[in-house]
Design goal:
Strand content: 15-25%
Number of domains: 2
Radius of gyration: 22 Å
Helix content: 40-55%
Mean pLDDT: 83
CATH architecture of the largest domain: Sandwich
Strand order of the largest sheet: 1-7-2-5-9
Shape: globular
């Protein structure tokens, strides 16, 4: 009989403070609205298939299958796919630090191809999706352990050049509400709905959200809608009433009031002032 024994030395892992906030599987379709936004947590994107680019503030990063992009907290970004080869990707929202490449002077993000570890990365991501979807016994503990293994694999893949840096604990309820608004701002949303989403009193939610981001949840919602309305005013022939309806405003008058407050002019005047090259014929 032959036997090989490997003794494990006591070891403390620095990744144990990571917390999974959300995980989603997304596909970039023609109706996807790409708006620059930020989060107070790490977002890790893994591209399953397709081609496109990630915009990180002024930068544009081309991506394709088996690429990973990590966006650090409070960095504006968005993703854009090609209609003929749409991006399909899995994204994690993770609290507990930042990820940095030691050979990259830009601390806002890190991007790399996963190479031979891609199959392992995809395995752990899909296992996490299944755990969160099925909600079986101990699914939170299993998901937490899968998350740590995933990050350690990524760190090892980059020859330990990825560094975790602790960040102050954020209001998880605010992050959840902000993420929901980012994803659903075209829908009809009320403060009562948002408060119910995170099981808080609506007045308390408004208070902590304003403390966290400097604006109320509804003001933030309107900012997202007005940003999108600028695009619709310049790149479509939709009427002001149609745009108000598409973006979930209660009425065209309320849309016009919000637009004028943020842009300093009415939607109609904004459209008239656009250069001829930006107007829809």
């Amino acid at each position: 009989m032959s036997m090989r024994r490997y003794d494990s030395k006591e070891y403390s892992c620095g990744a144990t403070n990571l917390k999974l906030l959300y995980i989603t599987m997304s596909k970039y379709d023609n109706d996807w609205c790409s708006i620059m936004h930020s989060h107070q947590c790490i977002e890790l994107f893994y591209v399953v298939s397709g081609y496109g680019e990630f915009r990180v503030e002024e930068l544009r990063l081309p991506v394709s299958a088996n690429d990973a992009v990590v966006i650090n907290p409070n960095v504006e970004h968005t993703e854009i796919g090609l209609p003929q080869l749409p991006l399909e990707y899995i994204v994690l929202g993770v609290e507990g630090g930042e990820l940095l490449l030691s050979d990259n002077e830009d601390s806002r993000y890190c991007a790399f191809n996963c190479g031979q570890i891609g199959k392992d990365v995809l395995f752990y991501l899909r296992a996490m999706l299944d755990e969160m979807r099925l909600c079986g016994e101990y699914h939170q503990s299993v998901t937490h352990n899968l998350l740590e293994v995933l990050f350690l694999i990524l760190i090892r893949h980059k020859s330990a050049s990825l560094v975790l840096r602790p960040t102050p604990k954020q209001q998880r309820e605010c992050i959840h509400v902000k993420r929901y608004i980012d994803d659903h701002f075209k829908e009809k949303i009320t403060l009562e709905q948002l408060a119910k989403l995170v099981h808080l009193n609506k007045f308390h939610l408004a208070h902590i959200f304003r403390k966290e981001y400097g604006v109320s949840p509804i003001s933030y919602l309107n900012v997202k809608r007005i940003e999108e309305s600028r695009f619709l005013l310049s790149d479509t022939n939709h009427s002001v009433s149609q745009i108000a309806n598409v973006l979930g405003f209660s009425s065209p008058n309320y849309f016009s009031q919000c637009f004028a407050k943020m842009a300093g002019m009415s939607p109609t005047k904004y459209r008239m002032k656009l250069p001829a090259s930006q107007k829809m014929s």
